[in-house]
Amino acid sequence: MNDLIPKDLISFLTVVVFSFLIGLELKTYRANKEPHSHVGSARTYTFIGIIGFIFYKISLNYYIVGFISLSILYAIHYYFKNEKERTSIISFLLMAIVYSFGALIHIYNQIWMIALLFVLVVFILNYKSYIGRILNEINEKEFETLGKFMLLSAVILPILPDKPLNYIGISPFKIWLVVVVISTISYGSYLAQKFIFKNKGYLITGIFGGLYSSTATTVVLAKKALNINAKDELLSIINSAIITATAMMYLRLLIIAYIFNKEIAKQITVPMILFALVAIVIAFLLYKKTSSLNAPIDDRNPLELTTAFVFAFLFVAMMAITHYVTSHFGNIGLKILSFIVGFTDIDPFVLSILTGKFHISVNSLASAIVIAAGSNNILKALYALIFSKKIAKTSAIWLFILGIATIGYGLILY
Fold it and tell me: Staple partner for 42: which of 24, 61, 249, 334, CB 3.0–4.6 Å?
């Protein structure tokens, strides 16, 4: 069928359709937002698309002259319109996009670029107010944070040598790559929680907080329980959110494992998914619907240069310690170390296991990660009791049970 229809005809009709649709979209936007600031209609933009297609087909010189002529005409319109009232150049920008359709369809010989531009135009025009609200919420500190993220990933990372260091067997490049990956997960969850799911409830805090740090999230949520009556339905939501954060910890560790070491990741897939599902079921059973769903988030940005450098130092230190323990004490020493490390920040230890080269079996390394996750749950159970002054004891009990079960799985099955 495609052989019977000339390609130029298909290209021409594609340009006509999308040019008309953009003109129609601008007409709708103009009617709702800025009724007197634009020039042309859906027909005008259709003709602009046709002219662009024909002129590019004739020659590049015709195409350039055509664009210059349209620009001059718009400049004249803009000058006289701006004398009477403030006007926008959105219609000119869309005119330029529509005029480019003819060249794009000839260069790529596919409609994907034109279709993508149309989708972007629709999105940007219709989400003007939403984007404006986001921009109003972004302060100078957010741009500073973005600059820090670019410094970590796009400036420092490429200039580091990729030659392995003595003893620990990993290069500075890979050490910092670990920092970048963890920072990306933390920064992404922070942005999602602050700008997309802001004040949506304690469960959202549990989900995205767990992707960053289930330990820190447990502390934050436990403190929220201080001002809540023990019989208040909102306490059930906080308990549920604390367990949800731990469920996300299991999934986060599994994702990190698949990024850095698929062999170990395959070994821990079953326990991590199993205990994540168990935690989700417990959270669901604890959850009780209430009208008091909104909750302030912990607005501290996790992406700080000091934190990144400390994490890099801890990562290297844990790798050196793990090398020493596995070399001198073998599998038993590694299991004891993993249990002890669980009462601190487990990410540097887990990543040292995933990226290091140890003379020990994959099963033993996987066991160490599972045990560390379990002992970290016991730590969070203690935090839930201490920071809530035993008000969130329900979640603490379940965290303790999850911790013991996870440690048992790591000890028995590996």
Answer: 24
